[in-house]
Model the fold of this input.
Amino acid sequence: MKSPMVHVHDVTVAYHRKPVLWNVDLVLDDPRLIGVLGPNGAGKSTLLKAILGLVPIASGTVEIGGKPLAKQRRLIGYVPQRESVDWEFPVTVLDVVLMGTYGRLGWFRRPGSKERAIAIQSLERVGLVDLAHQQIGQLSGGQQQRTFLARALAQDAALYFMDEPMAGVDAATERVIFGLLRELRAQGKMVVVVHHDLRTVPSYFDDVILLHRRLIAHGPVASTFTRENLRKCYGGNLAALEMAAEIVAASAPTK
Done:
């Protein structure tokens, strides 16, 4: 039997002995756009980092395609939060995107003309080829996000994790990003996105993961993005619940 693309089993993560994720079980498979939703401090970014091996797991296991992460890293592309990147580091846009080709080169080869062509093509896909030689710190927030998306595209991964790629970008950049994510899904890729804007969930995602330190619900948007599940996830956040109720009502099929 084919192993799922991602299997998170009973994962708990703690910072300074304080648990931030409790006993999370998830099975993710098939080409899907999956949104990870929850209030601030719910553990959304921590979940991605736990799957990627970027934070230690107190208990539980993570498998990618039925194998430990260490054996499957080449399958994975990652777009971190923009705030976590040192944008003053002296590299160009093209340098950053070329980093996405390193995994296929191994330790002793340097990027050549083939890798450069892949990087340029990735920049064309995000509309930044004219800024290839610009220093990354000179870009706008939206351009910085597009640069890291281009790096992920250059990896040609099977599975992508993106931590709030829409944070701080304008509407045009958001449309570009989600257009590319739909292209990745059409190519048979899985894309997991930490997202904060409840209003766009029904139009952007196939599935949702609702998280509040524990897994609240996971499944298709139509059956999982419900008022009851959102109430469990967001608790007493009345503004979020009122917005969610409007969204769910607006996205419900008409008879």
